[in-house]
Design a protein that fits this description.
- The complex is a heterodimer.
- In chain A, 76% of the residues lie in helices and 2% in strands.
- By secondary structure, chain A is an all-alpha fold.
- Chain B has a domain at 24-221.
- Chain B has a two-stranded antiparallel ribbon with strand order 1-2.
- The model of chain B is unreliable at 291-295 (pLDDT under 50).
- The chains are: A mainly alpha, B mainly alpha.
- At the A-B interface, helix 5, helix 12 and helix 14 of A face helix 4, helix 9 and helix 11 of B.
Chain lengths: 331, 295
Amino acid sequence: MTKIRLPASIWTVGLFLVLLVFPFITKSQYQQHVMVMTLMAAVTASSWNIIGGYTGYTSLGHAAFFGLGGYLVALAHNHFGWHPFISSWFLALIVAAFACVMGWTALRTQGSAFVVVTIAGVFILRLLALNLGDITNGARGLTQPRPGWGGVPWSPELIKIPFHYIMLLLLCLTIFVSWRIRQSKFGMGLIAIREDEGKAESVGIDTMMYKVLAFGVSSYFVAVAGGIYSYFFTFIDPSFVFGIFTSVTMVLMAILGGRGTLWGPVLGAFIMNPLSDWIIGKFGGTQIHLTIFGGILLLVMLFMPQGILPAWTEFLNKRAKARKALTGNPS
Amino acid sequence: MTIPSFHLFVQTLILGLLVGGVYALMASGLTLIFGVMRVINVAHGAFLILGAYLTYELFQNFQIDPIASILITMPVFFVIGWILQRYMLSRIANPEKTSVLVTFSLALVMEGLLGIIFQTTARSVTPSYTSEALMFATYRFPVTRLIGFGVALLIILLLYLILQYTNLGRAIRATTQDPRAAQLMGINTSMISAFTFALGVSTAAAGGSLLSIIYSFNPSSQADWIGRTLSIIVLGGMGSIPGALIAALILGVMEQMTAIVITLYWSPIVFYFFLFFTLIIRPQGLMGEIIREKG
């Protein structure tokens, strides 16, 4: 029997333990709120990384799955009384199926054309959400009842805690799946597609099948996060969830941390999300937020396109090599 | 759903064609840049809105006519485009893959800065002839759209003449066809790239001025405009200026028809629909070549 070696280092175990007790470390509602949003951001960025990082297809369309997940969960909650903590997991399967159909057509295009198609996909869904007012309540968005369980609302002081743990669970699952994919033959195939799709096909990889599956898996966790998000805020705004900015944040975090690495997107989320909250708190206004976010993405693309983690590994390797050369003694 | 009468149908066709001409100008710069550099300048919509705001400021503060202000904004945009290409875009390591994200983030920065400087209230430029219209056999021809159509076609014609009959134009076309061969023939392709990008961005200045008299705008409208112009160049065939012209007229008419037959709110879907399905069914568009890119 082969032993499954978990991607555990002292850092990741430490991080996990801190996150596990986080709601007991701080009683601040604000800090708890930021942490829930950071965990959510890490989920979406890690999930995006499966198609955007491993497979190399830059999707700016993942806001579509986030929004769709949110809408389905909100509608099911309001009409059938399905609790979002449960319904999110399986309603996201519908979103993933939709993503596979969309991916089956969109993934025929490559490079820049793929980016443009995915942007168009988000715009189409936003237009539908805005215009199908009978179902979606149009531009006013959908509201949900106050979070609770079995008809009893959670007390306002403790309300962030259930969300903290369900997001942490979702993040662990996302990272686990992302890690399993990376170790598997499937993941190797995806990386082969990223490096050279033509060659990948010629060695017998069913590239279309691989890409569609990666797209579907990558949409699933984003959709679950969208469902829980809509319950967390008890409100869903079509212009925000189906906004290109929602897509960009996932892409930015994954690229900043290091696209195609397991922990890069998580690192990116833990940098960008608190930073973005700080920016809003300090300067207010979406305009400055937009400028700074765009500016960071621009700088990363120009000066560190590989991201923080790969740059750091490269730095460590170089230093080790230099040290070896200096002492002439491999240790 | 309403079936328009014949009169309304023709009137809609007229308005669609007039607005399509303006769309063609807006898209021409985008398709030119793609043709030469294989770069999709997603910031094009933001440049259109910047052009509209400059026109607005010149009109409000100095009473300069929006059409006349094109003569001021175009050279300014040319310089901006030149600098951006020389000092930013030319540094990108793997342009076919990453240029979209770079120009996209540029668009976000521009939208944010425009919002900080000009606020987010919707504006429009209203010269004396704003609500005038010429009547021709019971059909209305709004003056702003007539002017927009005329100016747009004039600038596209100039662009065409430059590309077709000057040495510079020949160098640009040679670079479009085969950058390596062009370089071997002694063409300074990096200069050509800078010039093309500057030229493409400067058409956005003219497009922005026309936009400002026909539509109202605010910083976030840049997303609508990049959606429209991208759909046009994709349908027309990326890199083809005649293709962009035809596609712009088709989409202009389709948009107006949708607004009449269904409602105004649904009309943007025409663009995204065409964008999505052209790329999937016929990636080369109406008049373009198949874009071969490594994924």
